Amino acid sequence: MTETIVALATPNSQSALGIIRVSGWMVLELCEKSCGLPSPTPRCAHLTKYTSLEQNTLDQIIMVYYKKGRSFTGENCMELTCHGNPIVLEEILNDLIHRGCRLANPGEFTYRAFQNGKIDLTQAEAIADLIGAKNKQALTLANRNLEGNLSKRINNLQTTILKQHSDIEAFIDFPEDDLGKEKTTQIIANLQEICSELSRLIEVGKKTAVFNRKLRVTLVGPPNVGKSSIFNKIIGLDRAIIDQEPGTTRDFIDYNINLGKVNIQLYDTAGIRETNKEIERQGIERTYELIKDADLVLVVLDRSLPYPTIIDHEIKNGVEDKKSILVLNKSDLQNKINIAGSYLEEIPKTEVSVRNEESILNLTNQITSCLLEDSLVDNEFNLSVNLRQSNALSKALVYIQNSIENIKTEETIEFAIPDLKESISLLGEIVGNKDNEDMLDLLFSNFCIGK
User: Fold this and answer.
1) 11 three-state secondary structure
2) Which residues pair with 7 in a beta bridge?
3) Burial (Cβ within 10 Å: 0-12, 13-18, ≥19) of residue 88
4) In whole angstroms, what is the distance from residue 357 CA to residue 332 CA?
5) 318 pLDDT more than 60
6) How much is the pTM?
7) Alpha helices in 99-222, H assignment, sequence order
8) Are 173 and 253 in contact (CB under 8 A)?
9) Quick one: 207 exposed, middle or buried, by C-beta within 10 A (0-12, 13-18, 19+)?
């Protein structure tokens, strides 16, 4: 019999309401003894009082009981909605612990749902992704996986591989029933289609990874071209110090901002120029490091000044292989810059002025478009693939490819069997191999408590 677990399912801070979750065999006993409801109607909100072991009323609550088999965890569950005073919540939690409950580990409710067959592993991971989504697209993809879109793909692949496996094994067991060229060709064609499907899913993983992390966007350029002003405008705060004296920014400044479909870490950096000042030189070195790690570089120039030749020999090498946007600042002033013939002529460009809000909005839209241009915003599968899943898919692909080579030569066809079995096992790890306890413990430990 598993222990009864309890956890706060809402943030531990003052709020209108707070929710406590309980799952395990003690739930019905708790309904009666702490909530005064010996026979609660499942999935019905009961207005009642929570009474402690000392028979003190701790709060007026709403209690909902979920019957075993029809709850999130698959066990008897209850949810207590209390007033959101941290003292009240702590008193009720402590009382439940004194009655025999145990504080839940991170992700333990979801882990029990997985162990009891209510969800598979891709759906469990989708729940964590849903809670931690950093933008709307990540939220959409997490919901698609929670609906089982990835699970269905993986299950279909396993079924197809299993069918090829059984056909080959039947031939090995009864060699007098020759597979025949037509049957062999069909098995190979089926496995090649599986390879294509695995490759497509791996590609989805590469293209949707952009939605699940902060993307680094770095402002670079000579001193006094307005990088800090643009930085402040994008984030909506006066975060960077602005001054007419060159070299004001001697170290990078960064700020996290959500642009809707992507979450970015925006960096304002030291202006690049030749200098004999040690502190400023160190700041410029850090700028080069940030360029190397950037997902997108914004090369900022002052269009009211002639083209700065320092750009060609100080920035070109670092930026050439990076996604970049040329930002021509001070569009409200007369244009004196000429980029014809420079390497910057080939990259996307936009003109901005910190006095023109629309130009800043256009810049942020262009940043989003540039970061997403290689990504599947509405991918054909309507799902996402994380790094763990992608690694398993890549390994499965190798085993399927090996099996195809063995099937092509009838003398080695029996060697295709272990490869096919291994590919099925690897796909099983994606949806949930419950025997791999170490992997499961590590995965669920990254969930929040109460989920």
Assistant:
1) coil
2) 21
3) middle
4) 12
5) yes
6) 0.74
7) 108-115, 121-132, 136-146, 149-173, 180-208
8) no
9) middle
